[in-house]
Amino acid sequence: MKTYTGGCHCGAVRYEVETDLEGVITCNCSHCHKKGFVLCAVDKDKFTLIQGADAQTLYQFGKKAIKHWFCSTCGTQSYAEGDAFPKMMINVRCLDDVAIDTLTISEYNGKDI
Length: 113
What we know:
- With about 110 residues, this protein is mostly beta strands.
- The protein has one helix and ten strands.
- It has one helix at about 30-35, and strands at about 1-5, 15-20, 25, 40-45, 45-50, 55-60, 65-70, 80, 85-90, 105-110.
- The longest helix is centred in the first third of the chain and has 6 residues, at about 30-35.
């Protein structure tokens, strides 16, 4: 496990997350696919929002089971959280100094859920 920092494009939202970057996925649901997310699930207690709680806007769709938080200034969605499961979905593209091309990425079929 390693502690990574990450956040939005403009810097208003910043967080730390502890993860080993195992189980990284791309998802083919309409939301993830259109935004090009590369995601890693982490336990909520491994995620700490450092700044920007008041700089975010909530987006939900469909069953509204996932809270998609995005920066109100730059529009970057760097993480989401589920209501029905104790996980945060981290957009690995928003982590500082992570080379996506070095990760093992699996495809997840969210389209059929």
